[in-house]
Amino acid sequence: MATAITNIGTLVTNDPSLGQGPLGIIENAAVVIDGDRIAWVGSSSKAPPTDNRTDAEGRAAVPGFVDSHSHLVFAGDRTAEFNARMSGRRYTAGGIRTTVAATRAASDDELDATVARHVAEALRQGTTTIETKSGYGLTVEDEARCLRIAARHTDEVTFLGAHIVPPDHADDPAAYVDLVTGPMLDACAPHARWIDVFCERGAFDGDQARAVLTAGAARGLTPRIHANQLGPGPGVQLAVELGAASADHCTYLTEQDVDALAGGSTVATLLPGVEFSTRSPYPDARRLLDAGVTVALSTDCNPGSSFTSSVPFCIAVAVRDMGMTPDEALHAATVGGAAALRRTDVGRVGEGARADLVLLDAPSHVHLAYRPGVPLVSAVWRAGVREV
Ligand code: NIG
Ligand code: FE
After folding, report:
1. Hey, what long-range contacts does 82-88 have (CB within 8 A, 24 or more apart)?
2. Which of 36, 116, 159, 298 has its CA 20 to 30 A from that of 69?
């Protein structure tokens, strides 16, 4: 049974052939949803007859946000660490250990409830596709159970056994890499689509990251990487060399890193919630965009470095502090995220796309950045179902 959403003030389709500019904006638009797909997009006055109709009353509509980077399978809380940072302490990868201990001690039901709560929280803020990772279990059993739980809530599941070397392997990191690329990968590969590694001083070096990603790729998992977050390093160029779907963080980039991204197919995923929550310098989105790099914008929702599930918040920060225009930030948070997940069915509003649509209590998508912190999301359809 088809449903039409009519009288949309401005609709961002992300398809330049459907409307004006790079965002393909249609004014006075309508969208027809049939099942889980979009069946028709165009001018409201030409909308075909349907059984059901929702009047958007001039509100703006955008594609559902695609959050291509989060860590939702965790237990516990890092408020004390955040408080210490806001009193001047620096963020380090070491805080991850606190969450690993809490996650190992948690029951499946507790972890499941936490993932469900944050996926629902993100949905209320317009996120209709979300990637999430393991990485707080760091034993064969705990990583596998974190992935099984994640897979109940999303198809975009990433194995991040190489998040840090856990305390139980502190004196033999090489043995931990062997575990990750051997028995842990065997147990985890069936539950994931992606393989990830935290390539950073204090986590894994370039050679270890290469070993992890190539082992995952040999098991059918596509690489993505946490790279160049806390300082310069080999991660971004490794990602491009291996054809990774995405290099995430990209905060400290050399000219060679930018050139490599511009010459390759790897998306640069920027995560401004991290710099906000760790009081550190933001990545330079302008430099990447000007070089022709595909940029995605995501939350990195996790209890340590970025405890926000809000894509609108990230859009506002990216516009204010990272040199992005409101159009570029919305593009990065929709089609950019889709590119980082190698998806063409989400992040756009067009015939055949998944019916993921967000209505805003605003006359245009620019208000996402213009009205920071204001809950503008007034309705959300995910796969054709009205969820909010
Ligand atoms: O993407 N950088 C590594 N991992 C997460 C932080 C995890 C944590 O602090 O718990 C990130 O920022
Ligand atoms: Fe992350």
Report:
1. 82/277, 82/307, 85/277, 85/278, 85/279, 86/279
2. 36
Domain residue limits at 58: 2-64+347-386
Residue nearest to atom 3 of ligand 1 (CA): 198
Residue 1 has pLDDT above 90, yes or no: no
Number of the ligand 1 atom closest to the C-alpha atom of 303: 10
Task: Collect all residues with Cβ–Cβ distance below 8 Å to 252 and sequence separation of at least 6.
Answer: 228, 229, 230, 231, 232, 233
Tell me: do 72 and 179 sit in the same domain: yes
Q: Tell me: the pLDDT tens digits for 143-175?
A: 999 999 999 999 999 999 999 999 999 999 999
pLDDT in tens, 253-294: 999 999 999 999 999 999 999 999 999 999 999 999 999 999
Q: Assess contact for 118 and 301: CB atoms under 8 A.
A: yes
Domains held by the chain: number: 2
Q: How many angstroms does the Cα of residue 231 sit away from the middle of ligand 1?
A: 14
DSSP class of residue 258 equals H
Residues touching ligand 1 (Cβ under 6 Å) are 71, 95-96, 99, 198, 226, 229, 274, 300, 302-305
* Stated pTM of the model: 0.98
Distance 120 CA to ligand 1 centre (A): 21
CATH assignment at residue 379: 2.30.40.10
> Around ion ligand 2, which residues have CB less than 5 A away?
300
Q: pLDDT (tens digit, 9 = 90+) per residue, 56-85?
A: 999 999 999 999 999 999 999 999 999 999
Which helix (H) or strand (E) segment holds residue 32: the answer is strand 25-34
ipTM, two decimals, is 0.97
Cα–Cα distance for residue pair 337/311, rounded to 1 Å: 11
Query: How far apart are the C-alpha atoms of 305 and 293, rounded to whole Å?
Result: 25
